[in-house]
Write a structure and sequence with these properties.
- It is a single chain.
- The chain is α/β, with parallel strands linked by helices and 289 residues long.
- It has helices at residues 8-30, 45-60, 76-88, 107-113, 125-133, 141-153, 172-181, 196-200, 261-281, and strands spanning 4-5, 35-41, 64-70, 94-97, 161-165, 185-189, 205-208, 226-229, 233-235, 238-240, 253-254.
- The chain folds into two domains: 30-116, 3-Layer(aba) Sandwich (Rossmann fold), CATH 3.40.50; 141-262, NAD(P)-binding Rossmann-like Domain (Rossmann fold, 3-Layer(aba) Sandwich).
- Helix 2 (45-60) crosses helix 9 (261-281).
- 44% of the residues are buried.
- Bound molecules: 5,10-Methenyltetrahydrofolate.
Length: 289
């Protein structure tokens, strides 16, 4: 048996088209374009690539892109001052500070400084708390993109057994909250989990976000399970996921790397920025976003 390959690239481009159509409505109603500010500290090549593709996607959606590049040795207080200006700027609906930040900067201080209602990354603790308690807020882009792909395979997730591998604040924890809100039975696993394979073997849904190339093996997977690979690992063999390629012989559906979750992350960032602008302008949006 061979798994259905979940085409995240195609799904993302359709989502971006829906976002662009709704952006046009918000512009017509409010007289201004939604704006996304992206802050990049230092010049890590991978981060530069992401920031450039975010900027291109923002313009393609009909929104305004504000890019702020700061040198790697910028003082923490200078970055904080920039965040304060972006918080106060009415043209800015979304603020993204590219992570990781240089070691001399306290990431938590920067993230908690962002206005939660402009936090389109969903990293602020207020948004984490909103997600955990079922209040409206911003959900981190990668796990929300994963959920959209999963709902394409399983329109009703209720009662399914889901195993999340990885407990980061950016992917694993919010992924678990989203699946719980969809009434999955959620098992959170991590580096200290005993007999990980025994948990994975029960799962209808597996989300792998560990950052280890090919970590999840085919003989762990229940035949027919849906597998979401969040890994983006740069190896000599190119970009590889956290899931071994042979898992595709056992799973019912699987996301590829590249072309799976990665493109969804950027599309959801566009969606979150649109949602922010619509809220701030009092414009209601199509539910299908
Ligand atoms: N504040 C913040 N928010 C982020 O959302 C954020 C961040 N910091 N720091 C870095 C990570 C990484 N990230 C990706 C986005 C798109 C792809 C993506 O489109 N990947 C393509 C391949 C791209 C390639 O070839 O490198 C794919 O998987 O098909 C990957 C990774 C967002 N991040």
């Amino acid at each position: 048996m061979s798994a259905r390959i979940i085409d995240g690239k195609d799904f993302a481009s359709k989502l971006r088209a829906r976002v662009a159509a709704e952006v046009a409505r918000v512009v017509a109603a409010s007289g201004r374009k939604p704006g996304l500010a992206v802050v990049l500290v230092g010049e890590d090549p991978a981060s530069s690539v992401y920031v450039r593709s975010k900027g291109k996607a923002t313009l393609a959606a009909g929104m305004e892109s504000f890019e702020h590049r700061l040198s790697a040795d910028v003082a923490e207080d200078e970055l904080i001052a920039l965040v304060d200006r972006l918080n106060a700027d009415p043209a800015v609906d979304g603020i993204l500070v590219q992570l990781p930040l240089p070691r001399h900067i306290d990431e938590r201080r920067v993230i908690t400084r962002i206005d939660p209602d402009k936090d389109v990354d969903g990293f602020h603790p207020v948004n984490a708390g909103r997600l955990a308690t079922g209040l409206p807020g911003f959900v981190p882009c990668t796990p929300l993109g994963c959920l959209m792909l999963l709902k394409d395979v399983h329109p009703n997730l209720s009662g399914l057994d889901a195993v999340v591998i990885g407990r980061s604040n950016i992917v694993g924890k919010p992924m678990g909250q989203l699946l719980l809100a969809e009434s999955c039975t959620v098992t959170m696993t991590h580096s200290r989990t005993r007999d990980l394979f025994a948990h994975v073997a029960r799962a209808d849904i597996v989300v792998a976000a560990v950052g280890i190339p090919g970590f999840v093996k085919a003989d762990w997977i229940k035949p027919g399970a849906s597998v979401i690979d969040v890994g983006i690992n740069r190896t000599d063999a190119g970009l590889v996921g956290d899931v071994d390629p042979t898992v595709a012989d056992v799973a019912g559906a699987i996301t590829p790397v590249p072309g799976g979750v990665g493109p969804m992350t950027i599309a959801v960032l566009m969606r979150n920025t649109l949602v922010s602008a619509a809220r701030r302008e009092g414009v209601s949006l199509d539910d299908a976003l």
